[in-house]
Specification:
The chain contains 13 helices and two strands; from the N terminus they run H-H-E-E-H-H-H-H-H-H-H-H-H-H-H. By secondary structure, the chain is an all-alpha fold. Strands 1-2 form a two-stranded antiparallel sheet.
Length: 287
Amino acid sequence: MKKISEKAMFAVFLISALASVCAVLLICVFLFANGIPAMHKVGLFKFLLGKNWSPTDIPPEYGILPMILGSIYVTAGAIIIGVPIGLLTAVFMARYCPKQLYRVLSPASELLAGIPSIVYGFFGMVVIAPVVKQLFGGKGAFSMLTASILLGIMILPTIISVSEVALRSVPENYFEGALALGATKERSIFSVVLPAAKSGVLAGVILGIGRAIGETMAVIMVCGNQPRMPAGILKGVRTMTANIVTEMGYAQDLHREVLIATGVVLFVFILLINLLFSAVVSRGGKK
């Protein structure tokens, strides 16, 4: 009887694991089967490096370079804003935060993860955009900078939660040994504990980058949604996700296929980020 139950549970776990793998494979098949032919019709380099996006022109132009750069710049801005704040917050919560304050701060950071994207978008429109406009003399309300600030806020809960768990998982004798050798508390944390938690911290950063580059609704509401080459942090841009959502509702034939091909490019971006993360972690493990 025991062997039968063990085999049954093994089968359940195996089916669950295979279901996840199959879901990823089906997504890949759908994207590449519909996107690759569109790239071939338009021309790979013309599609990836073209600067004009004009589906209604005759002949239409499908260059997504402005959207690729828009996604990269907005995500980079979110990383610059969100990663230092998230990491320092995680350090504070793991090593400095009093218990009474932690009882408030921890649920508050978790609550950030549960707020819908559309609510973040409204917050960006009503609060962040006017502040940016006021600071820069009436310019940049709906711009790359506003989108970066908003995304920087949105990735905070992911970075904070994962980094805090990584920091708490470091054996306490690492910290105590550094203190015994004469290091200050701050130096012990940033020179010993934080490097020991590097894999977990990087995982949080990668998840945050994935959230930032894949975000749609909030970005559409504050980035200006202009399909042109980025011209500065106070100018409007359009990201790849925003381009897909904006035009998929009425797109037909080649136009629709090209939007799916844009999804392929986005998928490849996420894949490369994860491969880079795996390479960094494996290299750190060998050291």
